[in-house]
Amino acid sequence: MQQPQLVEDPLSEHRVDMAAAFRWTARLNMHEGIANHFSLAVSDDGSKFLLNPYGRHFSKMRASDLLLINANDPAMGERDDIDPTAWCIHGAMHRNNPGARCIMHVHSKFVTALASLKDSSMPPIDQNTMRFYNRIAVDDGFDGMGMGDEAERLSTVMGNKRLAIMGNHGVMVIGNSVAEVFDDMYYFERACETLITALSTGRELRIASPEVAEKTAQQFENYPGFAERHLAALKDILDSEEPDYRD
């Protein structure tokens, strides 16, 4: 008798990458309780996307936990396994920005400290801050937790940038893949940590010239395969220590 063939989930590798990003974000303490959300578009128009479920801690996230969301289905906003702010913000972002394939939003410690300053700019004082030179949007229009009109407004703040400091709130990072966006999110938090630490000394900052800062930023953009290798290295550790993230 012919055995039934198993149907492989076409999104399985995307789910695994997402779960790894959640687990590692928790290890770095860049999450905030059961708040904060990552999403990944899986349709050409961006309207269908994977999202972490409401109430599932980043440190316990598994590939199978991720929800498949339709940004054009209002009924999704009534489900009790979908966080209202995640539905509003990520739904609006994916619906209005098809090119934003992956979106990560966190309230990590040093990012949020920078977002809380009147001047949230990032001077180029080391390699990590230079990585984002002239590549950051700063939103100073905070108007609540991201429901309704605020979510729609947030979907317009990125411009041609891949990262936005959300004033009084946190950070939003967008890109083409989980690896790319996680790498940017990780290094932006490191950049913010360096800047906040340097500012805390009260001493004058050593600021690089615009030419050197831009040169360094372009070198990061052209560095071969860095983000993919970064995520692969983290998955290798998780495969040894927390293999259930793949479930």
Biggest β-sheet description:
7 strands, mixed
Helix content: 40-55%
- Tell me what portion of residues adopts beta-strand conformation: 5-15%
Order of helices and strands: HEEEHEHHEHEEHHH
| CATH fold field value | L-fuculose-1-phosphate Aldolase
Mean pLDDT score: 95
Under CATH, the homologous superfamily reads Class II aldolase/adducin N-terminal domain
Poorly predicted regions are none
Radius of gyration equals 19 Å
Number of helices: 8
CATH class: Alpha Beta
Quantity of strands, as a count: 7
Shape: globular
Rounded to the nearest angstrom, the distance between the terminal CA atoms is: 30 Å
Number of domains: 1
> Given the helix and strand composition, which structural class is it?
alpha+beta
At CATH level 2, the architecture is: 3-Layer(aba) Sandwich
Strand order of the largest sheet: 3-2-1-4-7-6-5
Task: Record keyword descriptors for this entry.
247 residues, alpha+beta, L-fuculose-1-phosphate Aldolase, 7-stranded mixed beta sheet, 7 strands, 13% strand, globular
Would you mind describing this structure in some detail?
By secondary structure, the chain is an alpha+beta fold. The chain has a single domain, classed as 3-Layer(aba) Sandwich (L-fuculose-1-phosphate Aldolase), CATH 3.40.225.10. The protein has 8 helices and 7 strands. The protein has a 7-stranded mixed beta sheet with strand order 3-2-1-4-7-6-5, sandwiched between helices. Helix 2 packs across helix 5. The radius of gyration is 19 Å and the shape is globular. The two termini are 30 Å apart. The mean pLDDT is 95.
